[in-house]
Amino acid sequence: MAAEVKDAREEREVWSAYLVQHGLKRSEQREAILEVFLRTENHLSVEDLLQLVQKRRPDVGRTTVYRTLKLLSAAGLARELHLDGETRFERDWNREHHDHFICRACGDIFEFKSDEIEKLQEEIAERIGFAIDGHRHHIYGLCRRCQAKAAASRR
Amino acid sequence: MAAEVKDAREEREVWSAYLVQHGLKRSEQREAILEVFLRTENHLSVEDLLQLVQKRRPDVGRTTVYRTLKLLSAAGLARELHLDGETRFERDWNREHHDHFICRACGDIFEFKSDEIEKLQEEIAERIGFAIDGHRHHIYGLCRRCQAKAAASRR
DNA sequence: TTACGTGCAAATACTTTGCAGTTCC
DNA sequence: GGAACTGCAAAGTATTTGCACGTAA
Residue A141 and residue B124: Cβ atoms within 8 Å? Predict the structure, then answer.
C-alpha cells in the first residue's frame, strides 16, 4: 500500500540525516541491512536478519548486523524487544506505540494497542509519584490457530 | 508480620513436597539458598543471590544457585523476570499476580496490580481469539525520589 | 549402597571489542 | 589522505553441561 512506500521513504530520509549528523558513512552493507529491515515483517532476531541479508549479500558479517541495529535503534528506526529473554527488533518509525501478544506454540506475534490500558497505567503511576517514560506489555498464550491445532490433536 | 512468617512456613512445606515428589534430596546448599531467597527483598539477580548466600556459606557455587533457582521456579516458589534484558527472580508463592514499575535511575522496582487492566487485556485477547496464559507488564520511568533528585541537580 | 548433589572447568550462546585491511568522502 | 567501516578472531557475559568426588537416605 501507498502508506508503506511513503513510510519507507521517510525512514530512509531519517537514516540519511542520522548518518550525516553523526559524521557517519554510507556503506553497501548498511544499505543492504536497512533494506531488508524495512521490507521485512517485524520482530526479527539478529540471526533472522543476518540470514535474510546474507541471501543477497553473503559477505555481510554478523558483527555488522549488530552494529547496524544499534545505529537503527539510535536513529529511532528500530526498537528492541525482550520477549521472555529473546531479543528481537521491530520497526519503530512513525509507528503508533503498541504492545504484543506472543503465541507460545508458534511464536507468532500480534500487536495491540489500548488507550484505556495506557490511561490506567498513568493513573496508577500518579498515585505512587512515578513518571512513566516507557513500558512493555507482553501477553503470552495461544493464538487462535494453535488452539485449534491443540484441540484437534487432543481427539 | 505474622503473614510473612506463615507464608514462609508454607513455602518450606511446598519445597519439601516438591523434593519428595521428584525424588530429590535436601542439601545444606539448597537450604541456605532457599533461606536467603525467602528472607530477602525481591527481584534478585543470580549474582545478588550468590553474594548473599556466600556471606553465610562462601563455599556455595554459582552453578548451584542457577540449579536451585530452576528448582524453585519449577516448584512454583520463584518467578523469573526479564527486565529490559536483565534476568531477576522474585518470590511467587501465594502471591497475587502483579506487575512492575522499574526506575531507570536507581533500579528500584515497585509492584502494582490492576484488575481493570487485566480485564481489558482479556477483552482484547477475545477479539483476536487469543487464549492468554500469562503476561508481563513492565513500566519504566523515574520514581518519586529520583525525580526529586533530578530536579534538585538541575538547579 | 546408590542415586542425587556439588563445584570446577569446559562448553554454549549471545554480544562486544581489538585489529588489520578496505572504503567512503 | 584520513576517518569511518568491515569481517574475523578474541574477549566478554550469562548460562548450561560433563565429570569426578561427596553426601543424603
Answer: no
CA A134 from chain centre, in angstroms, equals 15
pLDDT band at A4 (very low <50, low <70, confident <90, very high): low
Beta strand pairing call for A99-103 and A131-142: parallel
| Residue B154 cell numbers, joined | 538541575
- The burial class, CB within 10 Å (0-12 / 13-18 / 19+), for B73 is middle
Distance CA A80, CA A92 (A): 9
Which of B137, B134, B138, B139 is CA-nearest to residue B122?
Answer: B134
Q: How many CB atoms lie within 10 A of CB A70?
A: 12
Q: For residues B86 and A101, what is the distance between their CA atoms, to the nearest angstrom? A: 21
B80-131: pLDDT as tens digits: 999 999 999 999 998 889 999 999 999 999 999 999 999 999 999 999 999 9
- Select from A139, A143, A146, A149 the residue whose CB has the most chain B CBs within 10 Å, as the one to mutate to test that interface: A139
Q: What are the structural domains, with CATH classification, of chain B?
A: 2-91 (1.10.10.10), 99-154 (3.30.1490.190)
